[in-house]
Amino acid sequence: MPPERSNKKKIFNDPVYGFISIPDALHFDLVEHPYFQRLRRIKQLGLTHLVYPGALHTRFHHSLGAMHLMQQAIYILRNKGYGISKDEARAASLAILLHDIGHGPYSHTLEQTIIQGVSHESISQLLMQQLNIEYQGALDETLAIFDNTHPKKFLNKLVSSQLDMDRMDYLKRDSFYTGVTEGNINADRLLAMLEIVDNELCIEAKGIYSVEKFLVARRLMYWQVYLHKTVLSAENVLMKVLLRAREIAPEVIQKVTDPLAYFLLKKEGFDDLHNDKQTLSLYCQLDDFDVFTALKTWCSHPDPILSYLSNAIVNRQLFKVELSNNAFSEERIAALKHQVSRHFKFSVSESEYLLISGKTSNHAYHPQQASINIIYKDGSIKDISEASDQLNISVLSHPVTKYFLCYPKIFATE
Question: How many CB atoms lie within 10 A of CB 370?
Fold first, then answer.
């Protein structure tokens, strides 16, 4: 009698790569787990869809795509003769599949607003540890790769580095869904050029132009998409909404979901999530819908600050935003605060909710992080910043910092 076929080897039809395979029962069970299914309800790009309407893809899409690239990378490295066991290949695939499982509502936008002082990577690790208990140690090697304690260090670099499967997927995927073609990269070429030297990832010298394209694409995507000025405005307004709701929390929690109410009332004490089962459990129930439902309710809230900011997001009444290479003067900010305060009859401190200033920066290539190494036929290795003869990578290595000022458009002078 032939063995019973497993019904857990599934495929997803992905618009970026075509068919993505779920290779075994453990992958399937983890994808089906409520922790992972929650990622269907968390947008990959937060509020970017308010600028690029197609950017409605989710962390679920991205995680499956990164897993697909990891499986391709492992296949290529194995074919080149590098020893990667079946268990190691599965563990690496699961590590990238679960790498974003700790993201909260609207991804990075509210990362330090819902739970202050805790990164989504730390929460991902906690949830993977919980899953490892649930699956009786099946994720031991996955956790070792994720936290870089596995002896094969290059497996961690495939998960988290300056040229990892995470970045490769989000550049291709975000470019696809936003329609910003400048961000598209040749992931197939980059994967085909992978090598391992002394337990570290390298790229064959003939793949150098693909690396250059990758770095330029990353820079363009940051300033055209991720840090687009209108996106910055929307995301900062959303953060202010949550901060205002938290400030007046007893007045606003009646019509919000229980998980969101819990985090609006709990303003600190997130330093021991490992032993705080209630907080972690409620966090795993939070998604974009909790926040957006609250925003719709708050549009008619009697608090004028909360209702004004909530309407700004729900009805896309976004703030005017100015960008500058230099910090805005204290005099300019003070004058705008006075205008806001006088117009809305707010106190000066309350007017800070409607006048948002700050700065943002980005490295296309970070010189203090693990380098992207290029290996030549003679065995010599150079950092991409030294190897590139077409681009001044050293320029891309310097952070680009921009200052922003956001305020209601009624105060715009133009």
Answer: 16
